[in-house]
Structures are given as structure tokens and as C-alpha cells.
């Protein structure tokens, strides 16, 4: 009995890891994406593991790719609040694993952006960070935004970075690992730290 069980498990494992099965799964993801996202560009690929909230508010450009555990959330309502969220991802954007992006306002990611793993980008908070927030538990506090997040073209974002509401990151910026970005920086900036600070300005 164990002999047959072993061979059945091995057969299933080989099927799941075969190129044919992966191509089939990718085709299913592509069909789903084109039907559910606001736009989904050609040659773009979703990871095997993902979670999306309201993909109808999310636009993805051409040649997008991501590793596993991609989480994109566009919240149009929360405990009676109403929002008009939008997430825009440009062309030739590459995410590593565990990227989490959440919007109630607008998050724009330009072309040729490269992200490492465990990155969090949000345009909102739970509550307004005031004493009145103590009247409700954190998960039930009203969502509030300090403005859109804009990440311009050719930005490289390191491992474990957190980008907070109202921030604009200029073209060609590099963000060091584990940085918390709570203010905007101009193009060609190298930034790092908690909170992130300007380390140097790149010059051609």
C-alpha cells in the first residue's frame, strides 16, 4: 500500500511542478486578470500566490512581474466610509515577494520600478493618530489619508521598505533596506533610515 501511495504522491508532485501545469495555471491567471483589473498590460504575469481587493480599481501596465504573496488592496468602503481608490502600476515593473500596497485615495508607481521583498506602501492610516482614536479599537478606527503616494520612473526600492501617505519619490531614487519613508524626496536621491533621510544625490 505504501508503495502505491508513494508513487501516487510522486506523480502528483511531478504534475504540479511540470511546465505544462505551470503554463496552464498562468493562462488561468492571465484570463482572470484581463477580466477583473481595470487594465492589465500585455506580457504581464501574476504570481502563483496573490490577494487582491477590488481589482476593478487597479491598472497594471505591460511586462509586469511579481514573485509570491502579492497583496494589492483598493478600499472603496470601510465601516460606512466611501472612497474612490486607484492603484496605477506602470510598464516594466518588477516586484519581489511579499509586496503589500493599500489605497483609499491613489497610489501611482511609474515605469521601470524595481522592488525587493517585504515592502509596504499605503496612502492611509487607521485613525488620525489623535487621542479621540482611543474610543475605538485600532481595526475599527476610520481610515484617513494625507494624500496620494507617487513613485516616479526608475526607482529602486530595497528590502523591507515602508512608504507612508502623502509621499512622492522622484525619478531614479534609491531607497535603502528597512527604511521608513514619511516625506517626499526629489529625483536622483539616495535615501535610507528610520525615518528616511537624504544620503546623497546622484549625478551623471
Describe what this molecule looks like in 3D.
- The protein is an alpha/beta fold and 204 residues long.
- The protein folds into 2 domains: 1-36, no CATH class; 39-201, Hexapeptide repeat proteins (UDP N-Acetylglucosamine Acyltransferase, domain 1).
- Helix content is 16%, strand content 33%.
- It contains 2 helices and 23 strands.
- It has helices at 2-16, 19-36, and strands at residues 39-40, 50-53, 58-60, 65-66, 70-74, 77-78, 81-82, 86-89, 94-95, 99-103, 106-109, 114-115, 119-122, 125-126, 143-144, 149-151, 156-157, 162-163, 168-169, 174-175, 180-181, 189-192, 197-201.
- A 7-stranded mixed beta sheet has the order 4-9-12-17-20-22-23, with no helix packed on it. Strands 1-3-8-11-16-19 form a 6-stranded parallel beta sheet, covered by helices on one side.
- It is globular.
- The relative contact order is 0.09.
Secondary structure layout plus pairing:
Layout: H1 2-16, H2 19-36, E1 39-40, E2 50-53, E3 58-60, E4 65-66, E5 70-74, E6 77-78, E7 81-82, E8 86-89, E9 94-95, E10 99-103, E11 106-109, E12 114-115, E13 119-122, E14 125-126, E15 143-144, E16 149-151, E17 156-157, E18 162-163, E19 168-169, E20 174-175, E21 180-181, E22 189-192, E23 197-201
Parallel strand pairs: 1-3, 2-5, 3-8, 4-9, 5-10, 8-11, 9-12, 10-13, 11-16, 12-17, 13-18, 16-19, 17-20, 18-21, 20-22
Antiparallel strand pairs: 6-7, 14-15, 22-23
